[in-house]
Design brief:
Elements (H helix, E strand, L loop, with lengths): L2 H14 L12 E7 L4 E10 L2 E10 L2 H14 L4 H15 L9 H4 L12 H25 L5
Antiparallel strand pairs: 1-2, 2-3
This protein binds zinc ion.
Length: about 150
Amino acid sequence: MTVDSMYQEIILDHYKNPHHRGLREPFDAEVRHLNPTCGDEITLRVQLDGDTVKDVSYDSEGCSISQASASVMADLVIGKDLASATSTYDEFLELMQSKGQLEPDEDVLEDAIAFAGVSKYPARVKCALLAWMAWRDAVGQARGEVGESTT
Ligand code: ZN
């Protein structure tokens, strides 16, 4: 099995059996992000518990890459503290901007390494990043709303 077909397997598997899908309560912030070039949509909720990402739930429509990416992202950030979830986000962003030049670190990115091949196709990079951008936005809003008053 080649690396590319292994990556395709991972993406297809998450697409067919998405993890953590469905909108859940309670949540601190909800965002809706669109990728008009492909027609992908995601509604995403984040619940924080102090500095921990307690839950990420989402409802999404679109291509297999955007759907699989939401599933992989939720796996990677739920239960992590914000600092390490954000550094995973940064690493994924860097991978997606690498145009296929970066060797992904499986210890950090786990199944997200499967999107390394996608980074060669600028039109699809937005599909892979949609859920991550939504997560980042929701975390920002959640922190703005919850803020110092509860901590
Ligand atoms: Zn797409």
